[in-house]
């Protein structure tokens, strides 16, 4: 084991002992699917942001689309339904453009 590995292990053990870090329960399976779906150049940044409770703007857009679609489906006013549908389409277009940029890396 390298010197850095020993230092890292010691820091992790200290963080667990102080309660700053809590390891997952034994037998917990890690879901790495989203990690490997992220472009390699962005993985470490996304992992850090996700670990601190931040999500990519694209995820926020998907949540917004779902919320607007639910409102649109529950709406009885035709004018309001059209406005909500336009907003959904605008966000979907923005989402698709963002996905094209991500894939273009």
Tell me what the structure shows.
- The chain has 105 residues and is mainly α.
- It has one domain.
- It contains five helices and no strands.
- It has helices at residues 3-18, 33-37, 43-51, 57-74, 78-103.
Kindly summarize this structure in a few lines.
It contains five helices and no strands. With 105 residues, it is an all-alpha fold.
Q: Give Rg in angstroms.
A: 21 Å
> How many structural units, i.e. domains?
1
Q: How many β-strand stretches?
A: 0
Strand content: under 5%
How far apart, in Å, are the first and last alpha carbons? 35 Å
Considering DSSP H and I runs of 4 or more, what fraction of the residues is helical?
over 70%
The gross shape turns out to be elongated
* Element-by-element helix/strand order: HHHHH
Average pLDDT taken over every residue:
87
How large is the count of helical segments? 5
In this structure, how is the largest beta sheet organized?
none
Low-pLDDT stretches: none
Classification by helices and strands: mainly alpha
């Amino acid at each position: 084991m390298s010197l850095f590995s020993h230092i890292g292990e010691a820091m992790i053990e200290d963080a667990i002992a102080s309660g700053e870090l809590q390891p997952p329960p034994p037998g917990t399976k890690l879901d790495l699917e989203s990690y490997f779906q992220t472009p390699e150049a962005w993985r470490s940044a996304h992992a850090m942001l996700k670990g601190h409770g931040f999500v990519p703007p694209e995820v926020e857009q998907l949540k917004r689309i779902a919320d607007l679609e639910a409102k649109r489906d529950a709406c009885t006013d035709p004018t309001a339904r059209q406005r909500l549908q336009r907003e959904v389409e605008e966000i979907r277009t923005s989402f698709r453009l963002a996905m094209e940029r991500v894939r273009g890396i």
